[in-house]
Amino acid sequence: MKKIINKLRPYLNPFKNHIFWNIFYNVLYAFFGTISYVTLIPMMNVLFDKTKKVTIEPIYTDVLHLKDYLENLMYYKVTSFSDSGTPQKALLLVVSIVILTFLLKNLAGYLASYHMMHLRNGVMAKLRGVMYEKIISLPISFYSEKRKGDVMARMLGDVGEVQNSFFMLLELIVKEPLTIIFSIIMMFTFSWKLTLFVFLFIPISGLIISKIGKSLKSQSLRAQNEGGYMISLVEETLSGLKVVKSYNAEDTFINKFRESINRLLNLSNKIGKKNNLAGPLSEVMGIITIGILLWYGGSLVHAEKLADGSPALEGTVFLAFMGLAYNILTPAKAISKASYAVKNGLAAADRVFEVLEQENTVDSKENALVKNTFEDKVAIENINFRYGNENVLKNFSIEVPKGKTVALVGQSGSGKSTIANLLTRFYDVQEGSIKIDGTDIKDWNIHSLRGLMGLVTQDSILFNDTIKNNILIGKPNATDEEIIEALKIANAYEFVKDLEDGIETNIGDAGGKLSGGQKQRLSIARAVLKNPPIMILDEATSALDTESEKLVQVALENMMQNRTSIVIAHRLSTIQKADTIIVMQKGEIVEQGTHANLLAKDGMYAKLVMMQSFE
Protein backbone atom coordinates (compact mmCIF):
# COMPACT_ATOMS: atom_id res chain seq x y z
CA MET A 1 0.00 0.00 0.00
CA LYS A 2 2.70 2.49 1.07
CA LYS A 3 4.76 1.64 -2.04
CA ILE A 4 1.82 2.37 -4.37
CA ILE A 5 1.03 5.66 -2.57
CA ASN A 6 4.67 6.73 -3.02
CA LYS A 7 4.44 5.89 -6.73
CA LEU A 8 1.22 7.87 -7.05
CA ARG A 9 2.62 10.90 -5.19
CA PRO A 10 3.95 12.72 -8.32
CA TYR A 11 0.45 12.45 -9.83
CA LEU A 12 -1.18 13.68 -6.61
CA ASN A 13 1.11 16.71 -6.08
CA PRO A 14 -0.66 19.00 -8.63
CA PHE A 15 -3.91 18.38 -6.73
CA LYS A 16 -2.67 19.07 -3.17
CA ASN A 17 -5.24 21.85 -2.84
CA HIS A 18 -8.11 19.44 -3.51
CA ILE A 19 -6.64 16.85 -1.10
CA PHE A 20 -6.45 19.47 1.69
CA TRP A 21 -10.03 20.67 1.17
CA ASN A 22 -11.35 17.13 0.87
CA ILE A 23 -9.78 16.25 4.23
CA PHE A 24 -11.01 19.52 5.78
CA TYR A 25 -14.62 18.98 4.69
CA ASN A 26 -14.50 15.30 5.66
CA VAL A 27 -13.47 16.36 9.19
CA LEU A 28 -16.46 18.74 9.25
CA TYR A 29 -18.72 15.98 7.88
CA ALA A 30 -17.65 13.61 10.67
CA PHE A 31 -18.05 16.36 13.30
CA PHE A 32 -21.52 17.53 12.21
CA GLY A 33 -22.56 13.90 11.65
CA THR A 34 -21.89 13.21 15.33
CA ILE A 35 -23.42 16.49 16.58
CA SER A 36 -26.58 15.87 14.53
CA TYR A 37 -27.39 12.83 16.71
CA VAL A 38 -26.55 14.69 19.93
CA THR A 39 -29.01 17.47 19.00
CA LEU A 40 -31.79 14.86 18.99
CA ILE A 41 -31.57 14.72 22.81
CA PRO A 42 -32.98 18.23 23.51
CA MET A 43 -35.63 17.68 20.82
CA MET A 44 -36.80 14.46 22.48
CA ASN A 45 -36.61 16.11 25.92
CA VAL A 46 -38.98 18.82 24.69
CA LEU A 47 -41.30 16.20 23.15
CA PHE A 48 -41.39 14.10 26.34
CA ASP A 49 -41.38 17.15 28.66
CA LYS A 50 -38.09 16.18 30.29
CA THR A 51 -36.28 19.42 29.54
CA LYS A 52 -33.67 20.56 32.05
CA LYS A 53 -34.89 23.80 33.61
CA VAL A 54 -32.44 26.72 33.26
CA THR A 55 -33.90 30.05 34.43
CA ILE A 56 -30.73 32.15 34.54
CA GLU A 57 -29.06 33.08 31.26
CA PRO A 58 -25.59 31.42 31.20
CA ILE A 59 -22.40 33.49 30.77
CA TYR A 60 -19.60 32.44 28.39
CA THR A 61 -16.29 31.93 30.21
CA ASP A 62 -13.77 30.08 28.00
CA VAL A 63 -13.52 27.56 25.18
CA LEU A 64 -13.05 24.65 27.59
CA HIS A 65 -16.60 25.17 28.87
CA LEU A 66 -18.10 25.96 25.45
CA LYS A 67 -20.15 22.73 25.36
CA ASP A 68 -21.76 23.43 28.76
CA TYR A 69 -22.37 27.07 27.78
CA LEU A 70 -24.14 26.17 24.51
CA GLU A 71 -26.17 23.41 26.19
CA ASN A 72 -27.32 25.68 29.03
CA LEU A 73 -28.04 28.53 26.60
CA MET A 74 -30.32 26.28 24.58
CA TYR A 75 -32.10 24.97 27.70
CA TYR A 76 -32.47 28.55 28.94
CA LYS A 77 -34.23 29.50 25.68
CA VAL A 78 -36.43 26.38 25.84
CA THR A 79 -37.31 27.10 29.48
CA SER A 80 -38.16 30.72 28.59
CA PHE A 81 -40.49 29.66 25.76
CA SER A 82 -42.16 27.00 27.94
CA ASP A 83 -42.67 29.37 30.89
CA SER A 84 -44.11 32.06 28.59
CA GLY A 85 -46.75 29.63 27.32
CA THR A 86 -45.30 29.09 23.83
CA PRO A 87 -43.90 25.51 23.92
CA GLN A 88 -44.26 25.34 20.10
CA LYS A 89 -41.46 27.90 19.83
CA ALA A 90 -39.29 25.72 22.09
CA LEU A 91 -39.97 22.74 19.81
CA LEU A 92 -39.29 24.86 16.71
CA LEU A 93 -35.95 25.95 18.20
CA VAL A 94 -34.68 22.41 18.89
CA VAL A 95 -36.00 21.08 15.54
CA SER A 96 -34.24 23.97 13.75
CA ILE A 97 -30.98 23.04 15.49
CA VAL A 98 -31.38 19.40 14.38
CA ILE A 99 -32.10 20.49 10.78
CA LEU A 100 -29.15 22.91 10.82
CA THR A 101 -26.65 20.25 11.97
CA PHE A 102 -27.87 17.74 9.36
CA LEU A 103 -27.74 20.49 6.71
CA LEU A 104 -24.15 21.40 7.66
CA LYS A 105 -23.19 17.71 7.67
CA ASN A 106 -24.52 17.16 4.14
CA LEU A 107 -23.09 20.44 2.85
CA ALA A 108 -19.66 19.37 4.14
CA GLY A 109 -20.18 15.94 2.51
CA TYR A 110 -21.02 17.56 -0.83
CA LEU A 111 -17.96 19.85 -0.73
CA ALA A 112 -15.71 16.90 0.21
CA SER A 113 -17.10 14.92 -2.77
CA TYR A 114 -16.64 17.96 -5.03
CA HIS A 115 -12.91 18.13 -4.26
CA MET A 116 -12.59 14.32 -4.44
CA MET A 117 -14.15 14.42 -7.92
CA HIS A 118 -11.52 16.90 -9.12
CA LEU A 119 -8.77 14.83 -7.51
CA ARG A 120 -9.91 11.49 -9.00
CA ASN A 121 -10.61 12.82 -12.48
CA GLY A 122 -7.45 14.93 -12.52
CA VAL A 123 -5.17 12.07 -11.45
CA MET A 124 -6.84 9.70 -13.93
CA ALA A 125 -6.36 12.15 -16.81
CA LYS A 126 -2.72 12.72 -15.79
CA LEU A 127 -2.06 8.97 -15.43
CA ARG A 128 -3.57 8.22 -18.85
CA GLY A 129 -1.61 11.07 -20.44
CA VAL A 130 1.69 9.90 -18.94
CA MET A 131 0.88 6.28 -19.79
CA TYR A 132 0.15 7.14 -23.43
CA GLU A 133 3.44 9.04 -23.64
CA LYS A 134 5.16 6.00 -22.13
CA ILE A 135 3.65 3.39 -24.43
CA ILE A 136 4.40 5.52 -27.48
CA SER A 137 8.03 6.03 -26.35
CA LEU A 138 8.79 2.39 -25.53
CA PRO A 139 10.90 0.55 -28.14
CA ILE A 140 9.36 -1.72 -30.76
CA SER A 141 10.98 -4.70 -28.98
CA PHE A 142 8.62 -4.19 -26.01
CA TYR A 143 5.59 -4.85 -28.23
CA SER A 144 7.12 -7.95 -29.79
CA GLU A 145 6.84 -9.51 -26.32
CA LYS A 146 3.68 -7.84 -24.94
CA ARG A 147 0.18 -8.17 -26.30
CA LYS A 148 -1.09 -4.79 -27.53
CA GLY A 149 -4.57 -5.58 -26.17
CA ASP A 150 -3.16 -6.11 -22.69
CA VAL A 151 -1.42 -2.71 -22.83
CA MET A 152 -4.74 -1.16 -23.93
CA ALA A 153 -6.53 -2.85 -21.01
CA ARG A 154 -3.99 -1.42 -18.58
CA MET A 155 -4.34 2.08 -19.96
CA LEU A 156 -8.15 2.12 -20.12
CA GLY A 157 -9.48 -0.44 -17.64
CA ASP A 158 -6.83 -0.51 -14.93
CA VAL A 159 -6.38 3.27 -14.74
CA GLY A 160 -10.19 3.50 -14.37
CA GLU A 161 -10.05 0.89 -11.59
CA VAL A 162 -7.42 2.98 -9.78
CA GLN A 163 -9.73 5.98 -10.11
CA ASN A 164 -12.84 4.13 -8.89
CA SER A 165 -11.29 2.05 -6.12
CA PHE A 166 -8.01 3.43 -4.92
CA PHE A 167 -9.25 6.92 -4.09
CA MET A 168 -11.69 5.41 -1.63
CA LEU A 169 -8.55 5.29 0.51
CA LEU A 170 -8.82 9.00 1.31
CA GLU A 171 -12.36 8.43 2.57
CA LEU A 172 -11.12 5.31 4.33
CA ILE A 173 -8.44 7.10 6.36
CA VAL A 174 -10.26 10.40 7.04
CA LYS A 175 -14.05 10.56 6.85
CA GLU A 176 -15.14 7.17 8.16
CA PRO A 177 -12.54 6.76 10.97
CA LEU A 178 -13.18 10.34 12.20
CA THR A 179 -16.92 9.68 12.22
CA ILE A 180 -16.24 6.63 14.39
CA ILE A 181 -13.81 8.52 16.69
CA PHE A 182 -16.12 11.52 17.21
CA SER A 183 -19.08 9.20 17.85
CA ILE A 184 -17.12 7.11 20.38
CA ILE A 185 -15.93 10.24 22.24
CA MET A 186 -19.53 11.45 22.51
CA MET A 187 -20.74 7.97 23.53
CA PHE A 188 -18.16 7.86 26.34
CA THR A 189 -19.58 11.12 27.70
CA PHE A 190 -23.01 9.45 27.86
CA SER A 191 -22.10 5.99 29.19
CA TRP A 192 -18.66 4.40 29.34
CA LYS A 193 -20.19 0.99 30.22
CA LEU A 194 -22.38 0.94 27.13
CA THR A 195 -19.49 2.14 24.92
CA LEU A 196 -17.28 -0.78 26.02
CA PHE A 197 -19.91 -3.15 24.62
CA VAL A 198 -19.40 -1.59 21.19
CA PHE A 199 -15.62 -2.08 21.50
CA LEU A 200 -16.08 -5.80 22.10
CA PHE A 201 -17.66 -6.38 18.70
CA ILE A 202 -15.86 -3.98 16.32
CA PRO A 203 -12.48 -5.87 16.50
CA ILE A 204 -14.24 -9.25 16.17
CA SER A 205 -16.14 -8.21 13.02
CA GLY A 206 -13.00 -6.52 11.64
CA LEU A 207 -10.99 -9.74 12.10
CA ILE A 208 -13.61 -11.86 10.33
CA ILE A 209 -13.89 -9.42 7.38
CA SER A 210 -10.09 -9.08 6.95
CA LYS A 211 -9.67 -12.89 6.79
CA ILE A 212 -12.11 -13.06 3.88
CA GLY A 213 -10.30 -10.25 2.01
CA LYS A 214 -6.77 -11.67 2.23
CA SER A 215 -6.78 -13.48 -1.11
CA LEU A 216 -8.74 -10.75 -2.91
CA LYS A 217 -5.75 -8.80 -4.33
CA SER A 218 -4.19 -11.83 -6.04
CA GLN A 219 -7.54 -12.84 -7.54
CA SER A 220 -8.13 -9.26 -8.75
CA LEU A 221 -4.69 -9.25 -10.42
CA ARG A 222 -5.46 -12.54 -12.20
CA ALA A 223 -8.85 -11.19 -13.32
CA GLN A 224 -7.28 -7.99 -14.70
CA ASN A 225 -4.61 -10.01 -16.56
CA GLU A 226 -7.33 -12.19 -18.05
CA GLY A 227 -9.27 -9.06 -19.06
CA GLY A 228 -6.14 -7.82 -20.84
CA TYR A 229 -5.81 -11.13 -22.69
CA MET A 230 -9.47 -10.98 -23.74
CA ILE A 231 -9.12 -7.44 -25.20
CA SER A 232 -5.94 -8.58 -26.95
CA LEU A 233 -7.80 -11.51 -28.49
CA VAL A 234 -10.50 -9.18 -29.83
CA GLU A 235 -7.83 -6.81 -31.26
CA GLU A 236 -5.98 -9.71 -32.96
CA THR A 237 -9.23 -11.17 -34.33
CA LEU A 238 -10.29 -7.88 -35.90
CA SER A 239 -6.79 -7.28 -37.33
CA GLY A 240 -6.69 -10.72 -38.92
CA LEU A 241 -10.39 -11.10 -39.78
CA LYS A 242 -9.69 -11.94 -43.43
CA VAL A 243 -7.45 -14.83 -42.42
CA VAL A 244 -9.92 -16.06 -39.78
CA LYS A 245 -12.75 -16.14 -42.32
CA SER A 246 -10.78 -17.48 -45.27
CA TYR A 247 -9.51 -20.44 -43.21
CA ASN A 248 -12.93 -21.07 -41.65
CA ALA A 249 -11.25 -20.58 -38.29
CA GLU A 250 -14.20 -18.81 -36.65
CA ASP A 251 -14.84 -21.73 -34.28
CA THR A 252 -11.19 -21.84 -33.17
CA PHE A 253 -11.23 -18.16 -32.20
CA ILE A 254 -14.73 -18.38 -30.68
CA ASN A 255 -13.54 -21.27 -28.49
CA LYS A 256 -10.46 -19.29 -27.42
CA PHE A 257 -12.68 -16.34 -26.52
CA ARG A 258 -15.17 -18.55 -24.66
CA GLU A 259 -12.37 -20.12 -22.62
CA SER A 260 -11.14 -16.63 -21.70
CA ILE A 261 -14.68 -15.51 -20.82
CA ASN A 262 -15.18 -18.59 -18.61
CA ARG A 263 -11.88 -18.02 -16.79
CA LEU A 264 -12.82 -14.37 -16.25
CA LEU A 265 -16.35 -15.38 -15.18
CA ASN A 266 -15.04 -17.79 -12.53
CA LEU A 267 -12.57 -15.23 -11.17
CA SER A 268 -15.20 -12.46 -11.21
CA ASN A 269 -17.66 -14.70 -9.35
CA LYS A 270 -15.07 -15.54 -6.68
CA ILE A 271 -14.21 -11.86 -6.23
CA GLY A 272 -17.90 -10.91 -6.30
CA LYS A 273 -18.79 -13.46 -3.59
CA LYS A 274 -16.26 -11.92 -1.24
CA ASN A 275 -17.23 -8.36 -2.15
CA ASN A 276 -20.93 -9.14 -1.67
CA LEU A 277 -20.24 -10.82 1.67
CA ALA A 278 -18.68 -7.65 3.09
CA GLY A 279 -21.99 -5.73 3.38
CA PRO A 280 -24.22 -8.45 4.88
CA LEU A 281 -21.47 -9.69 7.20
CA SER A 282 -20.80 -6.24 8.64
CA GLU A 283 -24.56 -5.65 8.93
CA VAL A 284 -25.11 -8.92 10.82
CA MET A 285 -22.24 -8.09 13.16
CA GLY A 286 -23.76 -4.64 13.55
CA ILE A 287 -27.26 -5.85 14.39
CA ILE A 288 -25.83 -8.26 16.97
CA THR A 289 -24.05 -5.28 18.55
CA ILE A 290 -27.25 -3.20 18.41
CA GLY A 291 -29.23 -6.08 19.99
CA ILE A 292 -26.82 -6.32 22.91
CA LEU A 293 -26.84 -2.53 23.28
CA LEU A 294 -30.64 -2.52 23.39
CA TRP A 295 -30.67 -5.22 26.05
CA TYR A 296 -27.97 -3.72 28.27
CA GLY A 297 -28.95 -0.08 27.64
CA GLY A 298 -32.58 -0.91 28.44
CA SER A 299 -31.50 -2.38 31.78
CA LEU A 300 -29.60 0.84 32.56
CA VAL A 301 -32.72 2.88 31.79
CA HIS A 302 -35.20 0.70 33.71
CA ALA A 303 -33.33 -1.39 36.25
CA GLU A 304 -30.26 0.57 37.41
CA LYS A 305 -30.92 3.62 39.56
CA LEU A 306 -28.59 6.32 40.85
CA ALA A 307 -28.40 7.35 44.54
CA ASP A 308 -31.06 10.05 43.99
CA GLY A 309 -33.43 7.50 42.46
CA SER A 310 -33.05 8.71 38.88
CA PRO A 311 -32.26 6.12 36.13
CA ALA A 312 -28.59 5.38 35.41
CA LEU A 313 -29.28 6.40 31.82
CA GLU A 314 -32.03 8.70 30.63
CA GLY A 315 -34.28 7.23 27.91
CA THR A 316 -33.73 10.20 25.59
CA VAL A 317 -29.95 9.94 26.03
CA PHE A 318 -30.14 6.18 25.32
CA LEU A 319 -32.00 6.83 22.07
CA ALA A 320 -29.33 9.35 21.02
CA PHE A 321 -26.67 6.81 22.05
CA MET A 322 -28.28 4.23 19.75
CA GLY A 323 -28.15 6.79 16.93
CA LEU A 324 -24.43 7.29 17.59
CA ALA A 325 -23.90 3.51 17.65
CA TYR A 326 -25.57 3.35 14.25
CA ASN A 327 -23.32 6.25 13.22
CA ILE A 328 -20.36 3.96 13.99
CA LEU A 329 -21.72 0.89 12.23
CA THR A 330 -22.44 2.69 8.95
CA PRO A 331 -18.83 3.90 8.41
CA ALA A 332 -17.51 0.56 9.72
CA LYS A 333 -19.54 -1.16 7.00
CA ALA A 334 -18.25 1.38 4.45
CA ILE A 335 -14.65 0.71 5.56
CA SER A 336 -15.07 -3.05 5.10
CA LYS A 337 -16.52 -2.55 1.60
CA ALA A 338 -13.91 0.05 0.67
CA SER A 339 -11.07 -2.20 1.86
CA TYR A 340 -12.10 -4.76 -0.78
CA ALA A 341 -12.30 -2.06 -3.45
CA VAL A 342 -8.86 -0.76 -2.44
CA LYS A 343 -7.43 -4.27 -2.96
CA ASN A 344 -8.82 -4.19 -6.51
CA GLY A 345 -7.29 -0.73 -6.95
CA LEU A 346 -3.90 -1.94 -5.65
CA ALA A 347 -3.88 -4.82 -8.12
CA ALA A 348 -4.78 -2.42 -10.96
CA ALA A 349 -2.13 0.10 -9.84
CA ASP A 350 0.50 -2.68 -9.92
CA ARG A 351 -0.34 -3.37 -13.57
CA VAL A 352 -0.32 0.34 -14.47
CA PHE A 353 3.06 0.98 -12.85
CA GLU A 354 4.53 -2.15 -14.42
CA VAL A 355 4.20 -0.32 -17.76
CA LEU A 356 5.13 3.14 -16.43
CA GLU A 357 8.31 1.76 -14.84
CA GLN A 358 9.32 -0.20 -17.92
CA GLU A 359 12.84 0.85 -18.86
CA ASN A 360 13.17 2.44 -22.28
CA THR A 361 16.29 0.75 -23.63
CA VAL A 362 16.28 2.80 -26.84
CA ASP A 363 16.37 6.49 -25.96
CA SER A 364 18.49 9.63 -26.30
CA LYS A 365 21.52 10.02 -24.06
CA GLU A 366 22.13 13.17 -22.05
CA ASN A 367 23.65 15.91 -24.23
CA ALA A 368 22.94 13.82 -27.35
CA LEU A 369 23.81 15.28 -30.75
CA VAL A 370 21.04 17.46 -32.19
CA LYS A 371 21.56 17.95 -35.91
CA ASN A 372 19.21 18.30 -38.89
CA THR A 373 21.66 17.92 -41.80
CA PHE A 374 23.33 14.93 -43.46
CA GLU A 375 26.71 15.67 -45.00
CA ASP A 376 28.87 12.61 -45.65
CA LYS A 377 27.85 8.98 -45.32
CA VAL A 378 26.05 6.23 -43.40
CA ALA A 379 28.53 3.61 -42.13
CA ILE A 380 27.54 0.23 -40.68
CA GLU A 381 30.66 -1.20 -39.02
CA ASN A 382 31.06 -4.86 -37.97
CA ILE A 383 27.65 -5.17 -36.38
CA ASN A 384 26.24 -8.30 -34.77
CA PHE A 385 22.57 -8.42 -33.90
CA ARG A 386 20.26 -11.07 -32.50
CA TYR A 387 16.57 -11.06 -31.54
CA GLY A 388 16.96 -14.18 -29.41
CA ASN A 389 20.06 -16.34 -29.06
CA GLU A 390 21.16 -16.69 -32.68
CA ASN A 391 22.73 -13.82 -34.63
CA VAL A 392 20.58 -12.42 -37.44
CA LEU A 393 23.47 -10.23 -38.65
CA LYS A 394 27.12 -11.34 -38.38
CA ASN A 395 30.07 -8.92 -38.69
CA PHE A 396 28.03 -6.91 -41.14
CA SER A 397 29.63 -3.77 -42.67
CA ILE A 398 28.53 -1.41 -45.47
CA GLU A 399 28.97 2.25 -46.41
CA VAL A 400 26.33 4.42 -48.05
CA PRO A 401 27.85 7.69 -49.36
CA LYS A 402 25.65 10.77 -49.56
CA GLY A 403 23.54 10.85 -52.73
CA LYS A 404 24.02 7.16 -53.52
CA THR A 405 21.52 4.30 -53.61
CA VAL A 406 22.48 1.01 -51.96
CA ALA A 407 20.19 -1.99 -52.36
CA LEU A 408 20.05 -5.03 -50.06
CA VAL A 409 18.78 -8.28 -51.61
CA GLY A 410 18.60 -11.88 -50.50
CA GLN A 411 16.23 -14.62 -49.48
CA SER A 412 13.71 -14.18 -46.67
CA GLY A 413 15.39 -14.37 -43.26
CA SER A 414 18.73 -13.09 -44.54
CA GLY A 415 18.52 -10.01 -42.27
CA LYS A 416 17.58 -7.31 -44.81
CA SER A 417 14.68 -5.75 -42.89
CA THR A 418 16.71 -5.89 -39.67
CA ILE A 419 19.04 -3.28 -41.21
CA ALA A 420 16.05 -0.87 -41.53
CA ASN A 421 15.10 -1.55 -37.89
CA LEU A 422 18.64 -0.81 -36.73
CA LEU A 423 19.16 2.33 -38.84
CA THR A 424 16.00 3.90 -37.40
CA ARG A 425 16.93 2.68 -33.89
CA PHE A 426 13.78 0.62 -33.45
CA TYR A 427 16.35 -1.80 -32.02
CA ASP A 428 19.96 -1.24 -30.91
CA VAL A 429 22.90 -3.33 -32.13
CA GLN A 430 24.55 -5.58 -29.55
CA GLU A 431 28.05 -5.32 -31.08
CA GLY A 432 29.63 -2.96 -33.59
CA SER A 433 28.26 0.45 -34.52
CA ILE A 434 26.17 2.39 -37.02
CA LYS A 435 27.49 5.89 -37.72
CA ILE A 436 26.06 8.87 -39.57
CA ASP A 437 28.60 11.53 -40.49
CA GLY A 438 31.10 9.75 -38.23
CA THR A 439 28.91 9.84 -35.08
CA ASP A 440 27.43 6.66 -33.59
CA ILE A 441 23.65 6.83 -33.88
CA LYS A 442 23.41 5.98 -30.15
CA ASP A 443 25.01 9.39 -29.52
CA TRP A 444 22.43 11.18 -31.67
CA ASN A 445 19.26 12.67 -30.27
CA ILE A 446 16.73 10.05 -31.35
CA HIS A 447 14.31 12.64 -32.81
CA SER A 448 17.13 14.31 -34.76
CA LEU A 449 18.21 10.92 -36.09
CA ARG A 450 14.74 9.94 -37.24
CA GLY A 451 14.20 13.45 -38.60
CA LEU A 452 16.89 12.67 -41.20
CA MET A 453 15.08 9.55 -42.38
CA GLY A 454 11.99 8.68 -44.36
CA LEU A 455 10.68 5.12 -44.04
CA VAL A 456 8.41 3.33 -46.50
CA THR A 457 7.59 -0.21 -45.37
CA GLN A 458 6.08 -3.21 -47.13
CA ASP A 459 2.88 -2.80 -45.11
CA SER A 460 1.35 0.62 -45.78
CA ILE A 461 0.68 1.93 -42.28
CA LEU A 462 -2.14 4.45 -42.55
CA PHE A 463 -4.57 5.79 -39.97
CA ASN A 464 -8.35 6.16 -39.88
CA ASP A 465 -8.29 9.80 -40.94
CA THR A 466 -8.24 11.95 -44.07
CA ILE A 467 -5.62 11.63 -46.81
CA LYS A 468 -4.40 15.10 -45.85
CA ASN A 469 -3.89 14.26 -42.15
CA ASN A 470 -2.16 10.97 -43.00
CA ILE A 471 0.36 12.77 -45.21
CA LEU A 472 0.82 15.68 -42.75
CA ILE A 473 2.36 13.33 -40.15
CA GLY A 474 5.79 13.94 -41.66
CA LYS A 475 5.37 17.74 -41.82
CA PRO A 476 2.44 19.03 -39.74
CA ASN A 477 2.66 22.64 -40.97
CA ALA A 478 2.66 21.85 -44.72
CA THR A 479 0.25 23.70 -47.02
CA ASP A 480 -2.34 22.03 -49.25
CA GLU A 481 -0.17 22.96 -52.26
CA GLU A 482 2.81 21.10 -50.75
CA ILE A 483 0.61 18.08 -50.05
CA ILE A 484 -0.65 18.01 -53.64
CA GLU A 485 2.93 18.35 -54.96
CA ALA A 486 4.00 15.38 -52.78
CA LEU A 487 1.03 13.37 -54.08
CA LYS A 488 2.06 14.14 -57.67
CA ILE A 489 5.66 13.01 -57.07
CA ALA A 490 4.30 9.82 -55.45
CA ASN A 491 2.09 9.19 -58.50
CA ALA A 492 -0.95 9.35 -56.19
CA TYR A 493 -2.66 12.59 -57.24
CA GLU A 494 -4.19 10.87 -60.26
CA PHE A 495 -6.61 8.91 -58.03
CA VAL A 496 -6.86 11.44 -55.15
CA LYS A 497 -8.15 14.24 -57.42
CA ASP A 498 -11.01 11.98 -58.58
CA LEU A 499 -12.25 11.35 -55.02
CA GLU A 500 -15.35 13.31 -54.02
CA ASP A 501 -13.59 15.10 -51.13
CA GLY A 502 -10.09 15.05 -52.60
CA ILE A 503 -7.38 15.23 -49.93
CA GLU A 504 -10.10 15.60 -47.27
CA THR A 505 -11.39 12.07 -48.01
CA ASN A 506 -11.41 9.71 -45.02
CA ILE A 507 -9.64 6.46 -45.98
CA GLY A 508 -11.14 4.23 -43.28
CA ASP A 509 -9.48 1.94 -40.74
CA ALA A 510 -5.86 1.24 -41.86
CA GLY A 511 -6.77 2.79 -45.24
CA GLY A 512 -9.29 0.02 -45.91
CA LYS A 513 -11.16 2.08 -48.55
CA LEU A 514 -8.10 2.11 -50.85
CA SER A 515 -6.29 -0.54 -52.92
CA GLY A 516 -2.83 -1.81 -51.94
CA GLY A 517 -1.11 0.27 -54.61
CA GLN A 518 -3.02 3.42 -53.62
CA LYS A 519 -2.12 2.96 -49.95
CA GLN A 520 1.55 2.46 -50.79
CA ARG A 521 1.64 5.59 -52.94
CA LEU A 522 0.15 7.58 -50.05
CA SER A 523 2.91 6.19 -47.79
CA ILE A 524 5.47 7.39 -50.36
CA ALA A 525 3.76 10.82 -50.55
CA ARG A 526 4.07 11.06 -46.75
CA ALA A 527 7.82 10.39 -47.01
CA VAL A 528 8.16 12.83 -49.94
CA LEU A 529 6.47 15.63 -47.96
CA LYS A 530 8.82 15.05 -45.04
CA ASN A 531 11.68 15.46 -47.57
CA PRO A 532 14.38 13.66 -45.53
CA PRO A 533 17.98 13.39 -46.79
CA ILE A 534 18.07 9.61 -46.15
CA MET A 535 15.35 7.32 -47.49
CA ILE A 536 14.84 3.75 -46.30
CA LEU A 537 12.58 1.58 -48.48
CA ASP A 538 11.79 -1.73 -46.82
CA GLU A 539 10.39 -3.99 -49.59
CA ALA A 540 8.08 -1.15 -50.60
CA THR A 541 6.73 -2.92 -53.70
CA SER A 542 6.78 -6.61 -52.72
CA ALA A 543 3.09 -6.74 -51.75
CA LEU A 544 1.82 -5.14 -54.98
CA ASP A 545 0.48 -6.46 -58.26
CA THR A 546 2.44 -5.76 -61.45
CA GLU A 547 0.46 -2.70 -62.52
CA SER A 548 0.58 -1.12 -59.05
CA GLU A 549 4.25 -1.98 -58.80
CA LYS A 550 5.06 -0.03 -61.95
CA LEU A 551 3.21 3.04 -60.67
CA VAL A 552 4.87 2.79 -57.26
CA GLN A 553 8.28 2.17 -58.84
CA VAL A 554 7.99 5.39 -60.86
CA ALA A 555 7.01 7.17 -57.63
CA LEU A 556 10.04 5.72 -55.82
CA GLU A 557 12.41 6.75 -58.60
CA ASN A 558 10.97 10.28 -58.48
CA MET A 559 11.51 10.34 -54.74
CA MET A 560 15.04 8.94 -54.75
CA GLN A 561 16.46 11.53 -57.13
CA ASN A 562 19.40 13.39 -55.49
CA ARG A 563 18.77 11.52 -52.25
CA THR A 564 20.68 8.95 -50.18
CA SER A 565 18.66 5.73 -50.32
CA ILE A 566 18.86 2.32 -48.72
CA VAL A 567 16.53 -0.03 -50.58
CA ILE A 568 15.61 -3.43 -49.18
CA ALA A 569 14.19 -5.34 -52.11
CA HIS A 570 12.54 -8.64 -52.79
CA ARG A 571 11.71 -7.88 -56.42
CA LEU A 572 15.02 -7.37 -58.13
CA SER A 573 13.49 -5.45 -61.04
CA THR A 574 13.11 -2.47 -58.70
CA ILE A 575 16.83 -2.05 -57.86
CA GLN A 576 18.69 -2.48 -61.17
CA LYS A 577 19.64 1.23 -61.17
CA ALA A 578 21.17 1.13 -57.64
CA ASP A 579 24.78 2.31 -57.30
CA THR A 580 25.63 -0.75 -55.21
CA ILE A 581 23.71 -3.99 -54.76
CA ILE A 582 24.56 -6.06 -51.66
CA VAL A 583 23.56 -9.73 -51.70
CA MET A 584 22.92 -11.18 -48.24
CA GLN A 585 22.63 -14.72 -46.95
CA LYS A 586 22.05 -15.69 -43.30
CA GLY A 587 23.12 -12.28 -42.04
CA GLU A 588 26.32 -12.04 -44.05
CA ILE A 589 27.36 -10.34 -47.30
CA VAL A 590 28.11 -12.86 -50.02
CA GLU A 591 28.32 -10.51 -53.04
CA GLN A 592 28.27 -6.80 -53.82
CA GLY A 593 28.55 -4.63 -56.92
CA THR A 594 26.42 -3.12 -59.67
CA HIS A 595 23.63 -5.00 -61.40
CA ALA A 596 25.83 -5.64 -64.49
CA ASN A 597 28.88 -6.70 -62.46
CA LEU A 598 26.93 -9.13 -60.35
CA LEU A 599 25.25 -10.70 -63.38
CA ALA A 600 28.68 -11.17 -64.94
CA LYS A 601 29.91 -12.98 -61.79
CA ASP A 602 27.15 -15.56 -62.30
CA GLY A 603 26.86 -16.08 -58.56
CA MET A 604 23.96 -15.92 -56.11
CA TYR A 605 22.60 -12.64 -57.51
CA ALA A 606 22.48 -14.11 -61.01
CA LYS A 607 20.58 -17.12 -59.59
CA LEU A 608 18.08 -14.81 -57.86
CA VAL A 609 17.58 -12.89 -61.12
CA MET A 610 17.02 -16.15 -63.00
CA MET A 611 14.33 -17.11 -60.51
CA GLN A 612 12.38 -13.93 -61.17
CA SER A 613 10.89 -12.97 -64.53
CA PHE A 614 11.42 -9.38 -65.71
CA GLU A 615 8.98 -7.53 -67.88
From TrEMBL:
Q: How does it sit in the membrane?
A: Multi-pass membrane protein
User: PROSITE patterns, per this entry?
Assistant: ABC_TM1F, ABC_TRANSPORTER_1, ABC_TRANSPORTER_2
**Domain ABC transporter as annotated: residue spans:** 378-611
Note the CDD domains from the entry. ABC_6TM_MsbA_like (cd18552), ABCC_MsbA (cd03251)
**Presence of keyword 4Fe-4S:** no
The residues covered by the ABC transmembrane type-1 domain are: 77-344
Gene3D superfamilies linked to this entry: ABC transporter type 1, transmembrane domain (1.20.1560.10), P-loop containing nucleotide triphosphate hydrolases (3.40.50.300)
Q: Which InterPro entries match?
A: AAA+_ATPase, ABC1_TM_dom, ABC1_TM_sf, ABC_transporter-like_ATP-bd, ABC_transporter-like_CS, P-loop_NTPase, Type_1_exporter
Major location, coarse class? membrane
Keyword tags: ATP-binding, Membrane, Nucleotide-binding, Transmembrane, Transmembrane helix
Named from the GO MF annotations, one term is: ATP binding
Its annotated compartments are:
Cell membrane
Residues spanning the membrane: 20-40, 90-112
Please give the PANTHER family that the UniProt record associates with this protein.
ATP-BINDING CASSETTE SUB-FAMILY B MEMBER 10, MITOCHONDRIAL (PTHR43394:SF1), ATP-DEPENDENT PERMEASE MDL1, MITOCHONDRIAL (PTHR43394)
Supply the name of the protein. ABC transporter ATP-binding protein
State the organism of origin.
Answer: Flavobacterium jejuense
